[in-house]
Each structure stands twice: as C-alpha cells, then as structure tokens.
Amino acid sequence: MSHLAHLNKYFYKYRWRMIPGVVFVVLSNYFGVLPAQVIRIAFDLVKENISMYRLFQGFERQQMVYEVFGYSLLLFGALVLLLSLIRGLFLFLMRQTIILTSRHIEYDLKNEIYSHYQQLDMAFYRRNNTGDLMNRVTEDVNRVRSYLGPAVMYSINTVVLSVMVIAAMISVNPTLALYALMPIPILSAILLFVNKIINRRSERIQRQLSTLSSFVQETFSGIRVVKTYNREADKRDRFADESNHYRDASLALVKTEAIFFPLILLLIGLSTVITVYVGGLEVAKGTITSGNIAEFIIYVNQLTFPAMALAWVTSLIQRAAASQKRINEFLRTQPEIQTGAQGHFQATGHIQFENVSFTYPDTGIQAVRNVSFEVKPGEVLAIVGKTGSGKSTLANLLMRMYDVHSGTIRIDGQDIRRLPLQAFRSQIGFVPQDVFLFSDTIANNIAFGLDETHQTEVEEAAKRAAVYDNIIGFEHGFETTIGERGITLSGGQKQRVSIARALIKKPPILIFDDCLSAVDTKTEEEILRNLSVVMQGKSTIFIAHRVSTIKNADHILVLDDGAIIEQGSHEALLALRGSYFELHEKQLLEEEV
Ligand SMILES: Nc1ncnc2c1ncn2[C@@H]1O[C@H](COP(=O)(O)OP(=O)(O)OP(=O)(O)O)[C@@H](O)[C@H]1O
C-alpha cells in the first residue's frame, strides 16, 4: 500500500478537481437515499387512504378522497423521479471530476516514467528487457489508474452510502436494522473470497494472453525462417496448444463469475426475507409502520452495491499497489552516468585515453585492458582487431555509455566525466555497428539528431554517405517511409543512411563502428572518398575489420583481448610483420579468390 504514496503528489496537484468530486459523491448518495423515505411516506399514505376510503363507503366524499389520494401519489411519484434525476446529475459530475482526474494523473505518470527512462543509462537497458519497460508504462500505469479513478471513487461512495443507509436504518428501528444487516458482512466476506479466486484466474488469463501474443509476434517476425525450415505445421500446433491453455483459463473464470451474481442475489434475498419477517413482527408490535418495511427493503438493496464494491475495490487497490511497486522500482533507479556539469561545451576534438580499463558489470568480462592513445584534432585513428577484442567497447566508453573503471578519457584535456553530458555527446557523430532506423521517412531518419533541418542539409548528408542516388530512385524519394509499414532498405543502404545521420550534425568528432561491413568494396571506396572531405578538420575514429577501410588512417591500433598489441601507420605496421601484417595478407588473398 505504501507504494501508492508516490501518487499523493498528484492528488495534491489535482486537489481542486478531487475535492468537488468527493462533494458530488456525498450529494449523489444523499439524493440516492432520500427516495426510500419518500416511498415509505407514500406507502403509509396508501395504507391510511385505503382505510379512509373504506370509511367513506357509500358517501359522496369517497370519490373526493379517491381523487386527492391519486393526486398525492402522483406527486410522490414525481418527487422520486426528480430526486433520481438530481442524483443522476451528481453522479455525472462525480465521474466528470474523479474519473477525469484519474486520466490526467495517468497522463502525468506516463510522462514521468517515460522521461525517467530517457535519463537511464545503457547498463539499465541491458538489465531490463523492452517488454518489461513497455509493460510498466502501459499495463502497470493502467492498473494504477483503476486505483486513481474507479477505486477512489467507489471507496468514497461505499463509505458514504453505507454510513447514510445504516444511519437511516438505525434511526427508523435499531432492531430491524440489526436483523436486516446481518447477512451483509457474510456477503462481503464471501465476495472477498470469490473475488480473490476471480483475480487469480484473471491473472492467469493475462499471463497466458501475453505468452500467446509474444508467441505470435515472434513467429511473424521470424516468418522467413519459419517458412524456410518448413516449421509452419509445428508453429500451428504450438499456437493451438497455447490457445487451449488460454481457453481453459477463460472457462475457469466464467465458471466462478457464474456463481458470483446468483450468490449475491441469494444473500440479498435472504436479507429481504429477514426484513419482511422481522419487520412484520415490529409492525404487529406497533413500533414501525408497514411503510418502513418498504423503506428497509430499498435500503437493503442499496447496500448490495457497497458490499460488491468493497470486494472489487480491494482487489483494484491490491493490483494497483503491486503495479506501482514495479513502477517505483524503475523511478527510483538512478542513472550511474550523471552529467559532470551544466551548460555548453564545444570540442575541438582532442581525444586522449590514458590507461583505460573496463569490465562489463553484468558479465564480468574485461573488455578493455590498460589502453592509452591520443587523437589530435583533425586526425584519423583506426582500430582493428578480432571480433570481441573490445573495439566497440572503446567507442561506448568514449561516448560515456559506460564509465571507465580505471584510467581517464579526456576531450580537449578535460575528463569526460566532468563535462556536461548532453552537450558533450552532441559533439560526437556516431555510426553504430548495428544500424537502427526508425519507422519514419528517410529524411526524418537522417535529420534525427537535429531539432531543425533543411532539405538541402539532408540531401548533402545523403550524398556524402553515397546513398543519395538510391534514395531518389525510390518513388517518394526522401519522403519514403522505411520500417514496418514502409519499404525495407538493404543492409548497405541502412548503413549509409545511418552514416548520413551522423554526418548531418557536423560534429567535431566522428566515430564509425564497423559501418561499412555491408557495402561492397566499390561503394566503400566511394564513401571513403566522400568521407575524406567531411572528415577534414574533424577527429575520426574508424573501427573496422577490413584493412582496406583504414589503410589511410594517421594511426592504427591493433587490439587483442582488450589490449593494444600493435600500433603505428599502415606502412609501419606492415613492416612489423605481426598480427596486422597477417590480417592484411589474409584479406588480400580473400580478395584475389
Ligand atoms: N553490453 C555488454 N555486456 C557485457 N559484455 C559485453 C557487452 N558488450 C560487449 N561485451 C563483451 O565485451 C567483449 C568486447 O566486445 P566488443 O563489442 O567491444 O568487441 P568488438 O571488438 O567490437 O567485436 P566485433 O568486432 O565483433 O564488433 C566481448 O567479449 C563481448 O562479449
């Protein structure tokens, strides 16, 4: 429950909507209880008038009594109708305030979680899967909203209505009130119990539903593999299997729900029977009128709602508390990568790694061992090495996706941990190894890193990345949508769009992480030629597998198992006749073949 305290700030924020909401709950209940008293009076009136009517048997006045009686009954009917209308109006206002507030809070909470997600670092995203992140911002917030709206509204409603009805009952006749109320706690206890079963079964359905949808999603994402390996029949059987589980879970829920309502009706019926019986005895004693019995029957029926709401609200609150706990877990996670300062930062591009070592916290793999190098403004540094030798890790460290464990990384002589994080990252144009493009137009994908762009800039960047001709070849050119609902770019085209995205920012530091692996050597040469113009005056780090990509670099590092094993210019490294030489020879042979 204490987890829900996080939401109190929102209740406070929307207090001028919540307070009138509570007032409307009270008023709607007040007008809900009143008709019972009107009906009692009408009932007693009927009884009296019938006696009076009989008394005037054979007199002329009898017709008049009849008319007055009919007229007053009509008035009472109209009064009950009017009270119901007023109650309806307050019910409308109650929903308009409380449920509306819950929607406002839901919106705020979603934004709070989302903007917190944006601040969290890579280590957090490594630890938690996307499905979980999405669930907390959608499903969990949804459950919390049920607490903010319906649960709060029905809780207040339940309390107010119970107090009003019970007070009215006791004021009429305490003995009858006691007897009529007797089955209500039993009713509540049974409802709580049944509700628990319903909850358990709904949870099972939810779980099965998410298994089912993940299964379907994965099958469709991998449909090519499924078809190539002829696994359609197998997938169909597995789907039928999962569907069966889902159906069984749904049937189990329906069964419980089927008992739920008859049970309520049984207990309410029991209360009514007791009311009529005990009420009859009291009428005989002369302590109450028969109108009171009618009034009581209405009260007992009105108490059905709070009894049901109690069980329902309890489960809503329990679920919301569990969801808010999960949300709080993420909200309380603080990013390990914190900004070192506020304000602006403009780099010239002087990069220094001094004895940098790094171990991935989750796996304990030491990816970088005591690495030192320097890139002066305008220089090109290349990094080669076997897969898993730590090349991408160096790029990640330079962008502060992770912080180094020992040693220092400096930009323009300043430790990057002391720089304003966002301003510092904006100085780097990064082309990652695994390209990610958004389901958006090509132009928007290229312009992603900028707040404002002109078409000419987008086209210029596309030309530099040697993808311009491909793009204008598409029917809608730069406005072509890519991704799920659009066209699929080839691996090489994606890489080049990703390069254009980095270039458009015109940053003083460029990092290319093995981003030419999917283009042929001819296109690679074209890109490199273009890049050599872009790279002028910028510090560039080129991570590559192919020696051909990097041979013109000012300095080359050869990495093995996280450490630099050789370094120097292309010629110097060839002269060494070490690992670099071997790699070069091997690749020459491959090209000839
Ligand atoms: N996020 C991560 N969490 C844990 N370990 C990681 C993570 N990323 C990489 N590693 C490990 O760190 C080591 C270095 O990986 P890195 O990606 O830097 O290699 P690389 O030289 O770029 O390889 P490739 O050329 O295949 O891209 C590898 O052993 C890898 O398994």
From TrEMBL:
Its main location: membrane. GO terms for molecular function: ATP binding. Residues 21-319 form the ABC transmembrane type-1 domain. SUPFAM superfamilies: ABC transporter transmembrane region (SSF90123), P-loop containing nucleoside triphosphate hydrolases (SSF52540). It is a multi-pass membrane protein. SMART domains: AAA. It is found in: Cell membrane. It comes from the Bacteria. InterPro entries: AAA+_ATPase, ABC1_TM_dom, ABC1_TM_sf, ABC_transporter-like_ATP-bd, ABC_transporter-like_CS, P-loop_NTPase, Type_1_exporter. Residues 351-586 form the ABC transporter domain. Keywords: ATP-binding, Membrane, Nucleotide-binding, Transmembrane, Transmembrane helix. Pfam families: ABC_membrane (PF00664), ABC_tran (PF00005). The keyword Membrane applies. This is ABC transporter ATP-binding protein.
